[in-house]
Structure formats: structure tokens, C-alpha cells
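Private note to self, pasted from the team thread so I don't lose it. C-alpha cells:
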């Protein structure tokens, strides 16, 4: 699979003679539903055509890390193995708050784009911080414990936008509640739907999304519970070539 990844990225139409850009930290969330006897489904949505970055592509909810994501309090912690993997090879601010912010960015963006609250209902009043006002109003405490890292990828150089993206997964029973209309307030994702992996592959997907779907399917065959101890792929460019490393 890594050879396919290399060849297709080399032909990526977005590649060009762009100046070097330092990748921004980002995170995305694969919400997996295994209810019933059918195959696992996951939530995806189509990016609005007005977006300059990947317009019309089907993606998982997520986005870049905001500075405020590092200042959120009253958060339930990661599993230690997940935290350790997310702490490896940090390119920007190297702190526990920054590591926590990776998952919080994915959780916040999932609410903004899909109207879903990932966390636990709390009986007490919550003070969380900017970007999580709706969570406090709903009495939902962000919970990083169920999240699992499934991949990490850094956008190659010579692209107009670059991200260091962590692909996190969580089972759908981690959804505490949702907005009544099933949409997020940002309007960034359209046509949100629960898709099987086969259905997802029929959509117009970015190359890295196809790669992560392949990695996820392969992992589920041998690790159906997504153990936090399982090594995960890390894609990046080194010395002009693409690398797939396990972390």
C-alpha cells in the first residue's frame, strides 16, 4: 500500500513549485458504528465547493488545532498508550497541553461540522473554555479515553497547504448527544452520512483518506477492538522520498 501511496502522491495535482510551508497540527475523527450484524460504518461528509482546500471531497470531520484547544480544562485523559504515540516526534509546541489539544481539535471540529458531542454527560456544571461553550451548555465533558490513533500523515512539500494530521478513531457509543437537526453550526460538511468502508471508497476521496481507510480495514481484521497498544502508520517525506513508518 505504501508504494501506491507514493506513486499517487507524486502525481497529486496540487503539487507544484510552492515555497516551503511548515505543516500545521491538525486532527480528524473517524467515528465507527458497529451496531447490528452488518459491517462497520463510519461518518463522513462532503466538503463544501466554496472551500479552497479539497472542495467537494468526502472526508472525516476534523481540522487544524486552534491555540485555544491547548487551554481547555475538565477533560478526561487519554489511554496512556495513545498519549505516548501522540507525543512522539512533535514538530511544534512540545507539551502535554499540546498533545491533549490534538484530540480536542478533532472533537471540537466534529461538533462544529457534524453536530455530535463526543464525551460523557456530567451531573455538575462544567467550565471548559473557548470553542467548547456548547459542550458546557449540554453538560458534556470531553473524554479522550476511548480515542485510538489509527494513522498520522504529514502533507508533502511543494503544496499550497500542509498539515501534520492525526487520524483518531472512536466507537459511536462515545457520542453523548447530538444537535437535533443532525448538522453542525459551521456548515463546512454537507451530505453527512454513515457509510460502510465499501461505500466510502466509492466517494471522491483525497488520496490520504483512501490510504487511511485501507489501513483501518486491515487493522480491523486483526484488531477488531482497536487496541491502544497496536502500532499505527506514520506517513511523511524524508530525503525526497515517501516513508511509511510504524509508531
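Design output:
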Amino acid at each position: 500500500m505504501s508504494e501506491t501511496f507514493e506513486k499517487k502522491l507524486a502525481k497529486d495535482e496540487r503539487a507544484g513549485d510552492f515555497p516551503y510551508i511548515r505543516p500545521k497540527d491538525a486532527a480528524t475523527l473517524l467515528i465507527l458504528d458497529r451496531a447490528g450484524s452488518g459491517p462497520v460504518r463510519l461518518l463522513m461528509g462532503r466538503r463544501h465547493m466554496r472551500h479552497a482546500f479539497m472542495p467537494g471531497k468526502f472526508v472525516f470531520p476534523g481540522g487544524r488545532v486552534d491555540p485555544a484547544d491547548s487551554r481547555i480544562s475538565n477533560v478526561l485523559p487519554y489511554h496512556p498508550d495513545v498519549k505516548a504515540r501522540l507525543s512522539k516526534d512533535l514538530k511544534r509546541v512540545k507539551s502535554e497541553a499540546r498533545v491533549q489539544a490534538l484530540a480536542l481539535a478533532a472533537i471540537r471540529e466534529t461538533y462544529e461540522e457534524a453536530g455530535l458531542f463526543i464525551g460523557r454527560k456530567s451531573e455538575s456544571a462544567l467550565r471548559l473554555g473557548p470553542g467548547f461553550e456548547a459542550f458546557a451548555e449540554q453538560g458534556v465533558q470531553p473524554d479522550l479515553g476511548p480515542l485510538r490513533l489509527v494513522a498520522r500523515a504529514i502533507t508533502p512539500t511543494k503544496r499550497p497547504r500542509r498539515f501534520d494530521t492525526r487520524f483518531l478513531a472512536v466507537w459511536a457509543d462515545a457520542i453523548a448527544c447530538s444537535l437535533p437537526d443532525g448538522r453542525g453550526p459551521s456548515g463546512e460538511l454537507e451530505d453527512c452520512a454513515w457509510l460502510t468502508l465499501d461505500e466510502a471508497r466509492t466517494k471522491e476521496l483525497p488520496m490520504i483518506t483512501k490510504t487511511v481507510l485501507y489501513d483501518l480495514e486491515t487493522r480491523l481484521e486483526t484488531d477488531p477492538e482497536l487496541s491502544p497498544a497496536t502500532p499505527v502508520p506514520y506517513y511523511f517525506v524524508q530525503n525526497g522520498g515517501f516513508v511509511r513508518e510504524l509508531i
